[in-house]
Queue: 2 jobs
Job 1
Amino acid sequence: MLVQLTVNGKPVQADVPDNTLLVQMIRDTLHLTGTHVGCDTSQCGACTVMMNGNAVKSCSVLAASANGADIGTIEGLAQQDGTLHPMQAAFKECHGLQCGYCTPGMVMSSIDLVNKNPDASEQEIRDSLEGNICRCTGYQNIVRAVQSGRDAMMA
Ligand code: FES
Ligand code: FES
């Protein structure tokens, strides 16, 4: 099936098998490997991308059903000159990552949270990141990063 998307602001298209997952198209066809696969069963959140303005687990979306969608991946967040998105910078500054495997999904989910609930309490941040699993950090610094990134995004 011919799937047409806008990815990080650029129109792309690819002929992919009907059962291709969105994460497979992003990683294997478009070679945007910042979106990770941690479980393939919709549990870990490593594959989280923005789809039409909402964070989605791209391992749970068929590429075909995303046809025509506006997709945002971690590669599209920084500016052309390399300046990080405020949420990326906050994760770096607050040590919100160790191995980094979960980080692209965490950052995308965190931006979605701030867009939808900029006044989120610490508990609401923790609740909203329940679908993103981190095996390294213990989450404390991730929560700090989200709070710091939120402040920078709202400034
Ligand atoms: S790879 Fe999609 S949720 Fe884990
Ligand atoms: S930083 Fe390693 S899984 Fe989160």
Note: Helices lie at 22-29, 86-93, 103-116, 122-128, 140-154.
Job 2
Amino acid sequence: MKFGELEIHLVSDGVVRADAGGPFGLVPRPLYALYLQPAPDNTVPMTLTCALIRSEGKTILVDTGLGQKLSPQARALWSLERPGGGLLQSLARLGVAPEDVDLVINTHLHADHCGGNTRRVGDQIVATFPRATYLVQRIEWAEASHPDPRTRSTYLPENFSPLLRQGKLKLLHGDAQVTAHVRCVVTPGHTRAHQAVLLRCGDWRGLWVADMASYAIHMARRAWVTAFDVLPQENIATKARWQEWAVEHDAWLFFEHDPQIAVARLAPEGRRFRLETIPEALELTAGLPTPEPPRE
Ligand SMILES: [Zn+2]
């Protein structure tokens, strides 16, 4: 889909299932079930949606899903389903080959956002996108390289360390303009240096929200934060700033993990906010996998 000179497509690395306690944290089940009904085993689907952006002649990929290096055990743990194949198949349907990608933006280095950065060839780990420079916040990289007991299972060095050694990782020191239409903005909370991606063309504004709000409802309900957020209070403050921004600019918000609402606007409703669907965005979401409804 084109917004003036900016082109955006949504691509997918599949759908996983997580215990609802992950994305919904302290939110009581009767409340979140109104939004997303968990399966009898209390799992909810989480999509692995990524963005393919074209701007100023550059082909840019935002996040890379779980990738191809998962062990059978890890694949089972994630309940990973790839009805349309993985990310590379999704890109191929757009006519994009791995060597066409100039830049990869990692919003953060949790395994479900950067697993597809690298792939295994024999006993080597190499860049999946051989010509690409990978952009990540320096502090995010530092935290990922020195994980704590809680983050160790998701910060997997194989997804980013080989890229640093091969000179393909560019560490950002705060907000960074990537092209005239694409800007990385630090949005602390989910991780200390999580970044969202601000998109603009003319008067149009979009925000690749990533895990600032894993589901769209997390963006509308300021106090709903996931159990994965390392700085939940800070994420609430971050969301407050971007909620105001989203309303002011009538921005399109893109949600990486939401199986029902991949793109929405935010509108004020009294002192709260509500989500508004964007009919024009159907063109973007049409090719995304729709997860199986929960089994009764
Ligand atoms: Zn995530």
Note: The two ends are 37 Å apart (CA to CA).
